[in-house]
Structures are given as structure tokens and as C-alpha cells.
Amino acid sequence: MRILEPRMLQYLHRKAGRDKIPLSGTFELSPCCNMDCRMCYVRKTREEVEAQGGEIPMESWLEIAEECRKAGMLFLLLTGGEPFLYKGFRELYMELSKMGFLISINTNGTMITEETVNWLRQVPPIRVNMTLYGAENETYRRLCRNPNGFDQTVHAAKLLKEAGISVKFNASMTPYNIEDLEGIYEIAEDLNIYVQAAAYMFPPMRRDESLSGQGDRFSPEEAARYQVKIDKLRLTMDEFKKRAETMKANHLEDLAEEEEWERDMREPLGCRAGKSAFWINWKGEMSACGIMPYPITYPFRDGFVDAWQMLVEKTRELYMPPACVKCRRRKVCHVCGASAYTETGTFGKVPQYVCEMTEHLIRFTEEELAVQIQSSSEGLQLQ
Ligand code: SF4
Ligand code: SF4
Ligand code: SF4
Predict the structure, then answer these.
(1) Distance (Å) from CA 288 to ligand 1 centroid
(2) CATH topology of domain 7-219+272-319
(3) Are 219 and 304 contacting, i.e. CB atoms less than 8 angstroms apart?
(4) Whole-number Cα distances in Å, 101 to 27, 104, 170, 378
(5) Where are the domains of the chain?
(6) Which pLDDT tens digit goes with each residue over 249-266?
(7) Strands 277-280 and 24-28
(8) Under a CB-based contact definition with an 8 Å cutoff, are residues 297 and 286 in contact?
(9) How far is the CA of 274 from the centre of ligand 2 (A)?
(10) Atom of ligand 1 nearest to the CA of 108
(11) Which of 92, 208, 258, 368 has its CA at 20 to 30 Å from residue 287's CA atom?
(12) What would the pLDDT profile of 187-210 be if each residue is shown by its tens digit?
């Protein structure tokens, strides 16, 4: 099962990007969490939060939300930490719903009980994005330091599905849970829930500025190997073959010499971040996306409209690394502004980790395609 983004949504974002409308926003309500995952870049204890000035009160979020609404925000993602730990979450959610936003919630799922679902079904969110960290409690104990996390999460997913609330699983694969990859896909299939897994982890620069290019993660070669495994699990055989062929065609496609000369080497960041989307963290700092710690503006201090305009202008001054702009692997590489920045500490340099991962990704995909072709021709001969 796959989720394709509706064309209407793509159209809305394109139009919003052209007109500088903040169509989609994220409110990161709290960095507090009842789990303690090894690779987390946001989690803080209640004491740490208080020492840094505390969470933003509900009334202030509602004021900013009203400014966002007037400026054109339609889609709102509530996230954390664990957003259900935010004091006043339910009241805030209901008030935001009344304002007409289409709300999604990011959660680890472990705090969602029958009672939560009964409350939520009164005004259901458009989607609950739940992270599935493993396929058994032992993995949750090892990775998230919660020995019951798996049972709690799957129970919550079932309850939400039964209540008719849309659920999506996200799975961040790390050296601590990679053994569970197939199990995660099996569980998702049993529950008829779409799962989006990723083997690439951004360096946690939001946690610590000095961690650019670092992280408790796979080597680029391992990340590529597991990404191909994910592709095999998420795609049908035909889709995988198509992807492999497209990949081969694209990465071999050299830029014609004159095209390379004519091409503007100053290519702006390519995604919606800072064009039609924004993220406000629990301290009230607004960035283009949740991964990039730069540029930052201050909507609670300067007003949302001014802070958004400043963010758009600052994002417009950022460019992809020049070497990526003319790279012949570009169409198959997942490089983006956030990966360039978190891998190198700047936007101008090539993120070597991503580069190496892409090189291996192409090689492993081609090797896998060759294996598939070989086994299907053997199958034909046997018939
Ligand atoms: S569940 Fe999410 S927010 Fe909580 S510790 Fe794990 S990664 Fe961090
Ligand atoms: S992670 Fe990359 S692609 Fe995603 S929003 Fe941030 S900059 Fe854009
Ligand atoms: S990161 Fe490397 S492979 Fe990817 S586009 Fe840039 S130069 Fe090319």
C-alpha cells in the first residue's frame, strides 16, 4: 500500500510557494518525551525545559495560530517530543480544530489509550503519524529505553484504526533496530497501515551545533544497503525494476556541455521549506524545516507575518552546493538543504556522507536488479 500525495495538494503548495503563503505549519509543542531514544535530537527533561524558560503557554500558541490562519495556513502538524505531554494539549487541539485547520499529529503512540481515542474521535485529526521503532518490546527497550513500547504503540494503532482515524507509520532505521525491518513491514501490512521507513539519519545538529556530519548511525554504505532493502519491501517487483531502470538512465545521463555552461549554478533549495512551509519549535524559534537550525526568525517576538517574510527572504538567499547542481547523480540523490547544512555546517559544501550513500545506492540497486532479472529468467526456463 502506498500513499500518493493528492495532485491538489501539490498544486496548492506550488501556488503557495509562488505567492509566499505559509500553507503548512508545524508547532513543536514540547521537547519532553516519555521515551528516551538513542538517536533523538529534540528530547529534553522537564527540568531542562524549565531551566530554559519553559514551554510556550497555550494562549500564546493560539494567538500565533490565529496570525497563521490569517496569513493562509491550512495544514497544521502538532509534534514534540511527545505532543500528548504538552500541558493543555487537548484544549489547544480543540481550539485549533475550531479555527478550521486540517490537523495531523506526530506521536510515538505509547500514551494513546482507549480513553484518548474516544476523545480524539469527537474531532478526528486528518492523520496520526506514529513512529514504529521496532517489531518487539526488546527493541524498544534497547533503542527507546521503554520495555513495553512496542505493545503500547501497536495497541494504539489498532485503536485508532478501529475508530476510523487515519494512521501512518514512520520507521527510522538505525544500527539498534535494523534487525526488525522486515518485522515492521509485516506488522504494518497486518494492520493495513502505510509505513515509511528511512535508513538515512540527519546529524542531530539541533541537539548540538558541533555535531555536524556526525550521528549514531550507519556508515554511508550500510545506509545505502538498507535503503535498497527498504525499497524492495515497499515496492512491488515491477516498481522496483522500474525504479532501478530509471535510476540507471538518470545517473548515466551526462549534462550536455552547453547545458552545463548555461545552467545557473546558483540553485535555490528545492523543497517547500521556507517557501510554503515552516516549523516553530518549542522555544518559539521559526525555521524552514525541523531539521535545519538555520535560518531562524522569531514569530512570538516580531509577529508571525514579519517573521515569515524574513524566513522566506533568508531562505531565498540559500543555494544548493554548486557541485550538486551539476552532478549527474543528482536525480537519484536525496541531497537537500537540510542534509547539506547538517552534514557540513554550511550550504555551500557537498555532503560527503550523502554522496557516498548515493554512489552505493546506485550500485546496490543495479546489483539487485541483475539478481531479479536472473531469477525471473531462471523461473521462465523452469516453466
Ligand atoms: S519518541 Fe521521538 S521524541 Fe521521544 S525520545 Fe524517541 S525520537 Fe525523541
Ligand atoms: S529535510 Fe530537506 S527536504 Fe525535508 S523539509 Fe527539510 S530541507 Fe526540505
Ligand atoms: S551529494 Fe553528491 S551525489 Fe548527491 S548531488 Fe551532491 S555531489 Fe551529487
Answers:
(1) 21
(2) TIM Barrel (3.20.20)
(3) no
(4) 12, 9, 23, 54
(5) 7-219+272-319, 220-267+320-383
(6) 776 655 555 455 455 568
(7) parallel
(8) yes
(9) 10
(10) 1
(11) 92
(12) 999 999 999 999 999 998 887 888
